[in-house]
Amino acid sequence: MLVVGGQPICLPCAEIRDREAKAAGHNLEFARLIDPTICGLCKTDYGSGELPVVGGVPACANCSKGLYERPYPGWLKLAMAGLLLLLAGSLWRGVPYFKAGRHLVLAERAMDRADYKTASTHFTEVLKVSPTEQKVLLMGAKANLMIGNVAGADKFLKQRETYQSSDLFTEVKGLWNHAVDAYEKAVKAKTLYDAHDEEGAARLMREASDEYPQSPDLVESALNLESGVAFNHKDYDAFLRVSKELMNRFPGDPMAVGGVASALACKYAVTGDPSYHQQAEEMLEKARALAQGSAEQKTRFEEYAERIHYRLESRVIIDKPEYDRRFRQEAKR
Amino acid sequence: MFFIPGFVISIATFPGVILHEAAHLFFCKINKLAVFDVCYFRIGNPAGYVVHETTNDFKKAFMVGMGPFFVNSFFCVVFCSAAFMPAWELEVRDLLAYFFYWLGLSIGMHAFPSTQDLKEIWRMMPGEARKFNPLAIISYPIVGIVFVLNLARFFWADLGYGIAIGILAPLAIFHWLV
Prior knowledge:
The complex is a heterodimer.
Chain A: E1 2-4, E2 7-9, H1 11-23, E3 31-32, E4 53-54, E5 57-58, H2 61-68, H3 74-93, H4 95-112, H5 116-127, H6 134-146, H7 150-157, H8 167-194, H9 198-211, H10 216-232, H11 236-249, H12 254-271, H13 274-291, H14 295-314, H15 320-332
Antiparallel strand pairs in A: 1-2, 1-3, 4-5
Chain B: H1 6-12, H2 14-30, E1 35-39, E2 49-52, H3 58-80, H4 84-89, H5 95-109, H6 115-130, H7 134-151, H8 157-177
Antiparallel strand pairs in B: 1-2
Helix pairs in contact in B: 2-3, 2-5, 3-5, 3-6, 3-7, 3-8, 5-8, 6-7
């Protein structure tokens, strides 16, 4: 039953009155006639006893209990418990991602301060979770290219088949192309060197090094070849200058330090100036100390030092093949 | 801007609807408000609902109206925590991470209270604020922002909110912590 204008009205009549009112252009407001002795939910008639009203509806004790204590369905509890368990498992399984994320943050910070070596170390850790995010891969590749690690950069770039154009992509692509071109030149330089065209090899290796100066290998190779050419031309000033440049670039390399000793020994041999002799001895000692790190370096240094000492004692400048021919063939016999 | 019918979005993000209604029910129960009907999910508008007793107690109305917003936001952050690093930052091909990415964002997208819930709070707020009810006073900006965001759903504000709290905020915190 409903009420309109204070008068009770049944539902079919209310619908007719509503249609008539709407046709006449006005609205009627109907309200539900509530019998407080009948439960509005289970429809049980409680006789003359009035029921408490819950939310505008008379509700018996049984029904009102259900209204306040509506349980969650089993499927919902089960789904929530399952999801939380899965989440815990996923978080545990996701520990490597968080570690990678941490390395990524540290790598980005290192990139910001142009510390590409540190960035590359962190990016290597990021690579362990096989990311495919373009910016991460390009930055990882850039960090490696900036320290001359083309193979390392390749590992990052291979993670994706295609890249969208961006400033970073253009930059990395440029670096990559320079690096590839430079290494092609280096291979050709090696061929020339093997064919005993040392000057051609040095020139081409210098081109390669200039094209991709981030590569310490190319720089070292170029300087080594140039020092060899200077030695062959008996241009000991150039030999000393290039050897010093090599040592300054690679101060921890015993052979680079030994190269300066060799050049100083040449200068002593041609000038007789004892200061060169003394400096050569100092450099040899420095190189010896550096060579103690590994047995291989130590052996290599000892062979080299023997020839430099011969040069300092005899003031005769000969290259390794000649030294071997003169002194070591005999020893073999 | 592209338009996708609401029911399609509801289907695609149904866990958010279910959690929203479950949270409504939870806050009705703890505030001792009678619940007449609950629909956790359906294909229609609204996609879910809880028909409950009205109240003139502002605290109860606020908790019932805004409670799902906080619950959904919380679970959005929780579920996205398994996903923001692999799925967003690193783009690792990990199905489980993408599942939680979808789950978290679905939940976050349905954090906003319905206009009906907000209207109820909005109606009571001025009177309560005049009585210096601190909850009503601090509710003003929260409800105001949520009201605007709710209206901006057409512009994918709900998805934006999910991404903001489930992905960007945890990422920012992660960056800050490292």
